[in-house]
Structures are given as C-alpha cells and as structure tokens.
Write a structure and sequence with these properties.
- Helix 9 runs antiparallel to helix 10.
- 33% of the residues lie in helices and 27% in strands.
- The strands form four sheets. The protein has a five-stranded antiparallel sheet. Strands 11-12-13-14 form a four-stranded antiparallel sheet, with helices on both faces. A three-stranded parallel sheet has the order 1-3-2, with helices on one face.
- It starts with 6 loop residues before the first strand and ends with a helix.
- The protein contains ten helices and 14 strands.
- A hairpin with a 6-residue loop joins strand 13 and strand 14.
- The chain is of the alpha+beta class.
- The chain has three domains: 47 residues, 2-Layer Sandwich (Uridine Diphospho-n-acetylenolpyruvylglucosamine Reductase, domain 2); 111 residues, Uridine Diphospho-n-acetylenolpyruvylglucosamine Reductase, domain 3 (2-Layer Sandwich); 106 residues, Enolase-like, domain 1, CATH 3.30.390.50.
- Bound molecules: flavin-adenine dinucleotide (FAD).
- The site of flavin-adenine dinucleotide has 28 residues, from strand 2, helix 2, helix 5, helix 6 and strand 10.
Length: 286
C-alpha cells in the first residue's frame, strides 16, 4: 500500500523542528530512521499529515561518555553502537545488543531514540533502557524534561512522550566492571525477538551485590524482574539460586498468546533465557 498524503518538512535545526511539531501538534510525526514509521505509514497504521525529518539537523548524532553516563543523541543509529565507545560494561553490552537488532540495512538507518519512541514490546533497546534505568531526555517548545525509563513505557507502542516532544538524548549509567548477559530467541535471524532478557550483576566476595534482570516480549512493555533480582542479592550466586530467581521471573510476567506463540511458551522462554543471561552475567562478574 501507499501512505496517505503528507507534507514533508526537513528543518535545519532542532528549534525549527520543535516549532513545526508545536504548530502541527497531533498531526505531525518525527521521522528518524524511518524503519518503523515508514512501514506503518505504508500500511496506513500511521497517517500523519506532516513529517518532520530530523536527518538534516547537525549535531544530533553523537555518542559521548561523561558524568558516569553514556549519552546517545537522537540520530545515533543502531550500527553506531557496534563499536563500543569505551571499555565500560554498558558500552560492551550495547555493542552486543546492537548486532541483534533487525538486519544490516535496518541497523544502518534505524535509531535508538526512534526505537524507544516506537516502544515495540520486543525491542532490545527498550528492554536495555529498563534494565539500566536509563533517562530519556525530551525537548519541546515548552522546555526540556527527563523521564525515567520505568515511567516512559506506558503500554503497547505507548510512551510518556507528548506529541510535540523530541527525544534528544538517551542517558545510560556506566556499569563499570559489572558482568552482563544478553539472550534472545527469535523465529529466524534478524526477526524481532520472541522473548529477550538482559542481566547485569556485581559480586562482592562471591556474594551478589547488585542484580538487574529485564525481560522483553512477555507483556505490553519491557519489565524488570524485581522479585528475581531480590532473590539473588546478598546471596551466593549458586546454580540453585539462579534457577529459583529465573523461575520467579517467569512466574511474574504476564505474556499473551498470538498467532505464532502461546503465552505458555513465552513464559517458558523467560525462565530459560533469564537463567542463561544471569549465568553469563554472574560468570563475567566473578
Ligand atoms: C524488518 C524489520 C526488522 C526489525 N527488527 C527489529 C529488531 O529485531 N529489534 C528492534 O528493536 N527493532 C527492529 N526493527 C525496528 C527498527 O529497530 C527501527 O529502527 C526502530 O524501531 C525505530 O527507529 P527509527 O529511527 O527507524 O524510527 P522511525 O521509524 O523514524 O520512527 C518510529 C517512531 O518513533 C518516533 N520518533 C523517532 N525518533 C524520535 C525522536 N528522536 N523523538 C521522538 N519521537 C521519535 C517517530 O515519530 C515514530 O512514531 C525492525 C524493523 C524492520 C523493518
């Protein structure tokens, strides 16, 4: 199918883009990599009458490290993260995650900020933002606000972003020398994950000091497995402890069935992939 008619704007700076969104509020959409928006427009699932293309704006494509954070600007493409910006565990994890987002042409165009704004429940970047307690910086003509990842994803393809806001930065805490794990199962290579998990852990003398576990593909939004995390912290990282935590993670998700995957199978995948991600993270942390 073809998209419904729209006006195309290519502002030269961010203020102009924000002004255009304010002027056409409710009618306009930001265009970043176009890898989700353009297919949605072609299927007429999205029918904006104005597209505000960010791609001509200079100075929006930087990845930088500072103040204990890794900062990803609006036009950083998935592929830009394949080479870690630093040796910190956060950047190394991003490099592993980026390689499993879609296929190469999608990674070359698609952006991290666009992925968060789109909020697909199986998207790796959304899960990573929740796992690491990212901060999403959003600007509009009304000012700048910082949104915590755990308040950003409100439901299926729904976020806390207002229609006139642009994500200018995604800020991720540096994890230092934490161990991390990332596992996913998809139907075929390059597909969205059926279920995916990210774990990040630190150990103190063999005892788990900090544990993070996030899950995608088992509910309307990515979630943290809070009970699983607390079952691990202050305990020895034994295979039994990891198995108990992974089972808790699977018990606590609320997956639904669709044409290809039953809720029971998704729950099973959560348990298996949580255990594998935690195994990897705890081994790397030791
Ligand atoms: C075949 C295929 C396979 C894919 N596989 C995967 C996968 O395995 N994992 C995965 O995570 N993704 C996958 N994707 C999606 C891909 O990652 C997209 O790039 C991403 O979801 C959206 O980023 P984008 O820059 O292309 O955004 P766009 O398509 O340009 O925009 C998407 C939405 O976000 C809004 N938006 C974009 N940027 C901003 C911003 N800075 N501020 C506010 N709103 C903004 C747009 O208005 C639009 O509503 C796949 C896509 C395709 C076509």
């Amino acid at each position: 199918m073809k998209p419904s008619p729209f006006d195309y704007l290519a502002p030269g700076d961010l203020d102009e883009a924000l002004g255009a969104l304010a002027e056409h509020e409710g009618e306009a959409k930001v265009l970043a990599g176009g890898q989700s928006l353009v297919p949605a427009m072609n299927f007429r699932l999205a029918t904006p009458s104005v597209l505000v293309d960010l791609n001509r704006i200079e100075g929006l494509a930087e990845v930088r490290v500072g103040d204990g954070e890794l900062v990803i600007q609006s036009l950083v493409r998935h592929r830009d993260l394949e080479i870690p910006a630093t040796e910190d565990a956060t950047a190394l994890l991003l490099a592993r995650v980026s390689r499993l987002v879609g296929h190469l042409p999608i990674r070359v165009r698609g952006t991290v900020a666009g992925s968060l704004a789109h909020a697909d429940p199986a998207a790796e970047w959304c899960m990573l933002a929740v796992a690491l307690d990212a901060t999403i910086v959003a600007r509009s003509v009304r000012g700048t606000r910082r949104i915590a990842a755990n308040e950003f994803f409100e439901g299926l393809f729904t976020t806390a972003l207002a229609e006139d806001e642009i994500i200018t930065e995604v800020r991720l805490p540096l994890l230092g020398n934490a161990g991390t794990g990332f596992r996913e199962k998809s139907q075929t290579a390059g597909d969205f994950a059926t279920v995916a998990t990210i774990a990040a852990c630190t150990l103190d003398d063999g005892i788990v000091a900090d544990a993070r576990l996030a899950i995608a593909g088992a509910g309307a939004t990515p979630v943290r497995a809070n009970r699983a995390e607390s079952l691990l912290v202050a305990r020895e990282a034994t295979p039994d402890a990891i198995a108990v935590a992974s089972r808790a993670a699977a018990e606590d998700v609320e997956p639904s069935s669709d044409a290809s995957t039953s809720a029971d199978y998704r729950r099973h995948l959560v348990e298996v992939l949580a255990r594998r991600a935690l195994d990897d993270a705890l081994e790397a942390a030791s």
